[in-house]
Amino acid sequence: MNKIKIVFRILTFVFFTINVNAQQDPKIETERLVKLSQKLEGTYQLQIIDSREKAAMPLSILDEVTAKRHTTDVVYFWIKNNIRVMVLPLSVITKKDFIPVERVVNISSKNLSK
C-alpha cells in the first residue's frame, strides 16, 4: 500500500473519531443546543392545545425545528398529543419588521389553523 493511502486512512479515522466523540460528549452537545436555542428564539412556538400544562421542550427538538423550517410556509409538527410546534418560515423571520413570537402559548383546538 502506498504512503498516501495510509496517510489518508489515518486522517479519515482521526476525523471521524473526533467527530463521533464530539457528538457523544453530553457537555458539548448541550452547549451546541443552548446556542441553537438562543439563535432560534422567537422563530418557533410551542402551542399547548386545550390544556394549561407547563410545556417542557427537549432541546433535541431544536434540530427538528431547523430541519423542518420552510422558505415560505409555516410548518407544524406534533411533539405530544396536545403540544405542537409552529415553525415560522424564512420569508417571515428575515423581514426587517419581524416580531418574534412567544415561545409558549396555550390555545383552543377550535383555533387551530392546520
Spell out the blueprint of helices and strands.
Blueprint (H helix, E strand, L loop, with lengths): L2 H22 L1 H15 L3 E6 L11 H8 L6 E6 L2 E5 L2 H4 L10 E4 L7
Parallel strand pairs: 1-4
Antiparallel strand pairs: 1-3, 2-3
Global shape: extended
What's the domain count? 2
Strand order of the largest sheet: 2-3-1-4
Q: Indicate the structural class.
A: alpha+beta
Structure report:
43% of the residues lie in helices and 18% in strands. It has 114 residues and is of the alpha+beta class. The protein has 2 domains: 1-40; 42-114, no CATH class. The chain has a 4-stranded mixed β-sheet with strand order 2-3-1-4, with helices on one face. A hairpin with a 2-residue loop joins strand 2 (75-80) and strand 3. The protein is extended and about 70 Å long. The protein starts with a helix and ends in a 7-residue tail after the last strand.
Q: What is the compact description of this entry?
A:
This protein is α+β, with helices and mostly antiparallel strands.
Descriptive tags:
about 110 residues, alpha+beta, 2 domains, 4 helices, 4 strands
